């Protein structure tokens, strides 16, 4: 998992975005962009006259724009690339500057600075997919499903995910003001950013049940998972526990391969976990190819509207193979696969290359996965959810009695 070159990822979470400036890079960029465009583009070639329009606009901006401090060649160069990618109108296909690409990798390793909220799009609005546990966002009362209408007084209408994250993320100790909408009502919060460290796996034991909370499918997930499973198996083999709750609530996803690895813990070898379908790459079936350690343990999986991408693959596969009951709320609904590509000069590109389909043939994009047992957690204003007041968790315990 250390090689990020051309890696498939189901990413619903996005990272801190800032501008990286490097002196004379513009001239090389100008030559490389033009020559590459002329020599390698094989579809819908644009004539040189049309490409000359780009440089004509560039020249007019440099010559006439009133605020010369804002005419930054590197920003304009990156902005042109971002605009080209954005023309595809796919929020999950985007260009990353070198700093953005590095931050993306740091995030998948579980470290970054900001408010600790995973963001997504819902009806083209910037939406909180999940506040991270013990993060500044959670402590400020932000909840999954909150719309972010403004950031520091700037309206988010029409923003892409990278734009939103670039404004919300920032150095530890700085503040950001968010105007949120919940149940049709707006309110504002001021949050102090901090260092965010995300453990992929949190394991506890309660009521003779193993409770494993999975926060993301990142760089360290498989190793952390193996350690937790070893503890669960020991207690299961010695009959100290009677089952397991796998909590995927507010898990925004991550590596597709990690979801397959985790599903393989519970499913027999050869079972289909997920099918990847594409018009640009060969379709692929991801099958269980290892001996799982928890094949017989009774299992309940918790999902909600913050469960997305790789979380939905794991939950949906276990449901389709009748290995687990799903409890909670309908999941987010992200059924596409992105390939993360490292480019020259440290830049990166995330591009949608396929869709994924569950074993029973469902493509859950924009639809989500319905739980087998629908349970909604209703949290009184001003209170914090605890295990005792967590109706979804309590239903899972009930099913495992």
The named CATH superfamily of the largest domain? 2-enoyl-CoA Hydratase, Chain A, domain 1
CATH class of the largest domain: Alpha Beta
Count of strand segments: 20
Low-confidence stretches: 1-43
Reported for the largest beta sheet, the result is:
6 strands, antiparallel
Number of helices: 10
- Strand pairing plus helix content: what structural class? alpha+beta
CATH architecture descriptor name of the largest domain? Alpha-Beta Complex
Computed Rg: 23 Å
Name the average pLDDT.
86
CATH topology of the largest domain: 2-enoyl-CoA Hydratase, Chain A, domain 1
Beta-strand portion reads 25-35%
User: What is the domain tally?
Assistant: 3
What helical percentage do the residues reach? 25-40%
Give the termini separation.
38 Å
Q: What best-fitting shape do the alpha-carbon axes yield?
A: globular
H-E string:
EHHHEHEEEHEEHEEEEEHEHEEEHEEEEH
Short description:
With 401 residues, the protein is α+β, with helices and mostly antiparallel strands. The chain contains 10 helices and 20 strands.
Question: How would you describe what is shown here?
Answer:
By secondary structure, this protein is of the alpha+beta class. It folds into three domains: 15-40 and 47-89, no CATH class; 112-197, PDZ domain (Pdz3 Domain); 201-399, 2-enoyl-CoA Hydratase, Chain A, domain 1 (Alpha-Beta Complex). The chain contains ten helices and 20 strands. Strands 1, 2, 14, 15, 18 and 19 form a six-stranded antiparallel sheet that branches. Strands 11-12-13-16-17-20 form a six-stranded mixed sheet, sandwiched between helices. A hairpin with a 2-residue loop joins β6 (147-151) and β7.
């Amino acid at each position: 998992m250390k090689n990020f070159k051309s890696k498939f990822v189901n990413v619903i979470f996005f990272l801190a975005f800032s501008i990286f400036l490097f002196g004379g890079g513009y001239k090389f960029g100008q030559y490389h962009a033009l020559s590459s465009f002329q020599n390698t583009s094989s579809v819908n070639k644009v004539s040189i006259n049309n490409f000359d329009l780009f440089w004509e606009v560039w020249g007019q901006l440099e010559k006439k724009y009133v605020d010369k401090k804002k005419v930054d060649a590197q920003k304009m160069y990156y902005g042109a690339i971002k605009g080209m990618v954005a023309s595809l109108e796919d929020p999950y296909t985007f260009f990353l500057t070198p700093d953005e690409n590095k931050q993306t990798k740091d995030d998948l390793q579980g470290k970054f600075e900001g408010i600790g909220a995973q963001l997504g799009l819902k009806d083209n609005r910037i939406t909180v997919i999940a506040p991270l546990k013990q993060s500044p966002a959670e402590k400020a009362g932000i909840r999954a499903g909150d719309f972010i209408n403004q950031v520091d007084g700037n309206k988010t209408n029409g923003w892409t995910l990278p734009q939103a994250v670039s404004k919300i993320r920032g150095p530890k100790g700085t503040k950001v003001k968010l105007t949120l909408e919940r149940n049709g009502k707006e309110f504002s919060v001021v949050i102090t950013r901090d260092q965010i460290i995300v453990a992929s796996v949190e394991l506890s034991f309660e009521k003779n049940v193993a409770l494993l909370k999975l926060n993301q499918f990142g760089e360290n997930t498989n190793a952390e998972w193996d350690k937790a499973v070893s503890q669960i198996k020991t207690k299961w083999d010695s009959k100290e526990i009677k089952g397991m709750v796998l909590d995927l609530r507010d898990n925004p996803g991550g590596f597709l391969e990690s979801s397959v690895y985790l599903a393989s813990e519970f499913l027999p070898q050869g079972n289909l976990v997920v099918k990847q379908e594409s018009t640009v790459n060969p379709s692929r079936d991801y099958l269980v190819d290892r001996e799982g350690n928890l094949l017989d343990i009774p299992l309940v999986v918790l999902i909600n509207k913050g469960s997305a991408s790789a979380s939905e693959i794991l939950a949906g596969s276990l449901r389709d193979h009748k290995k687990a009951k799903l409890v909670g709320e309908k999941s987010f609904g992200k059924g596409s696969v992105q390939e993360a590509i490292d480019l020259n000069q440290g830049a990166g590109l995330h591009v949608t290359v396929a869709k994924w389909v569950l074993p029973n043939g469902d493509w859950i994009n924009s639809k989500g996965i319905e739980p087998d047992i629908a349970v909604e957690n209703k949290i009184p204003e001003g209170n914090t959810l605890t295990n005792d007041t967590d109706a979804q968790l309590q239903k899972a315990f009930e099913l495992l009695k």
